[in-house]
Write a structure and sequence with these properties.
74% helix; globular; 0% strand; mainly alpha; single chain
Length: 168
């Protein structure tokens, strides 16, 4: 865990000027994700995969709705609407192409949710994490191919540390 955390620090290179309370949200999300993985392996091995996938996504959805409603009504970031344009910005109608993208992503999410639920039932969370961290490699490749972003030394070193810690 410590090696993975060091990898995140190497990758992000945070400074005290960069710190914002919202920076802790992904950390909390990852901790809760790890707890869910361990609990699923320990307590849900004999549950139907579809029920697990559905319950996880319902909880994630309800949490997202609650957080969104809280942000809209409390407006803690009203002075910084650039941080959350999807909440504080104006809404626009979706085109047919946007609906097609949403439907495609929904199908992918269904397959991923079912696959992850089954994977956590049959394998240890440590083994699954090694495969889960492969998104870092894909993110770097897509950044290079789509956005022409060449990863620097610190990005590559951080990815190697995080993925290595996950595999270890």
């Amino acid at each position: 865990i410590l090696i993975g955390f060091v990898g995140v620090l190497v990758l992000l290179r945070p400074t005290s000027d960069d710190f914002d309370i919202l920076a802790l949200v992904p950390v909390l999300a990852r901790v809760l994700y790890a707890a869910a993985a361990v609990l699923m392996r320990r307590m849900c091995q004999h549950r139907p995969v579809a029920a697990l996938a559905l319950s996880i996504n319902v909880v994630i959805g309800l949490t997202g709705v609650a957080a969104s409603v809280g942000l809209v009504f409390c407006q803690p970031l009203k002075s910084r609407p650039d941080l959350l344009p999807f909440l504080y910005g104006t809404w626009t109608p979706m085109a047919w192409g946007d609906w097609l993208v949403m439907a495609t992503l929904a199908v992918f999410m269904l397959v991923i949710a079912l696959g992850l639920a089954r994977a956590y039932q049959v394998a240890s969370p440590g083994l699954i994490a090694a495969f889960d961290y492969s998104y870092l490699i894909f993110a770097a490749v897509f950044g290079l191919v789509i956005f022409d972003e060449v990863p620097d030394f610190f990005t590559v070193a951080g990815i190697v540390l995080i993925a290595g810690a996950g595999m270890w």
